[in-house]
Amino acid sequence: MGELKHLHATYNDIHNLIKLSADDLATFKPDLFVAIGGGGFFPARALRTFLKDPSTNKNIPIQAIGLSLYEALPGTTAEQIGHEVIRTQWLGPDAGKTLLGRRVVIVDEVDDTRKTLQYALLELQKDVEKELLALPESERKANRTEFAIYVVHNKLKPKVGKLPPDVPYFVGAEVGDVWLDYPWEAEDIEEHDRLAAEDKVKLIGAT
Ligand code: 5GP
Fold it and tell me: Does this entry carry the keyword Ribonucleoprotein (predicted)?
C-alpha cells in the first residue's frame, strides 16, 4: 500500500466486498446482526440482502449498539478519546433475552486497534451469561448464544484488543495501516468517488 495514507472506498466497493463475503458468512447461519453504529449500519443492511434464507425468504433482523472510541463526546475527557470505548447506545433492558439462543454476527466497518470489537463481544457475552444464569441448569446448553464477527476491512497491524479464537471472524478485505474514508462520511460524494478512483490508480501503480 506504499505511500497511500488514505484509502477512499465507494458504496459500490463496499457492497461488492460484502457480496463476496456472503457465502463464507452463510456457513455460520446467522439469525441476528448486531451493528455497531454508525459504521456498521450500512454493512449490516447490505449483508442482510445477501443472507436471506432462501427456504423461508425471511430477513435477518438487525439490532444496533453505539460505541465510540475516536469521537469527542460531550462529557468525555481528552484522555478518554481514542483510549476507552464509550457506550452511546445499547440493546435495552432485555439485551440478554434478545440474544439468547441466537447466532449473532457483530458487524462493524473496520477493525483497527480491535478495542471496539473486543468491548462489544465481551459486553454482549456478559448480557447472555446473566440471562443464562436465570435459566435452570438443564436448559443452559441449548440456549447458549453463538457469536461471530464481520468487518468490511481489517487493518493488518498489531491489535490492542483481543478476540477469542473460537469466535468466527469474517472479513471483506485485509488492508494495510491506512485511514479508510467511507462514502457515508463524505459531504461531496462525487468528489469522494473521484478520490477513490485516484486511489485505485495509485494502488495499481504500487503493485
Ligand atoms: P478500533 O480501533 O476499536 O478497532 O476502531 C474503532 C472505530 O474507529 C471503528 O469502529 C471506526 O468507527 C473508527 N475507525 C478506525 N479506523 C478507521 C478508519 O480507517 N477509517 C474510519 N473512517 N474510521 C475508523
Answer: no
Burial bucket for residue 11 (CB in 10 Å: 0-12, 13-18, 19+) = middle
Average pLDDT of span 82-92 = 88
- Residue 74 in grid coordinates: 460531550
Beta strands in 38-166 (DSSP E): 62-68, 86-89, 103-111, 146-155
- The amino acid occupying position 57 is N
Judge whether 112 counts as a catalytic residue. yes
Test site for ligand 1: of 70, 153, 178, 181, most ligand atoms within 8 A of the Cβ: 70
Among 116, 169, 177, 187, the mutation site with the greatest number of ligand 1 atoms within 8 A of its Cβ is: 116
Q: Does this model's pTM top 0.85?
A: yes
* 100 three-state secondary structure: coil
Q: pLDDT tens digits for 121-168?
A: 999 999 999 999 999 999 999 999 999 999 999 999 999 999 999 999
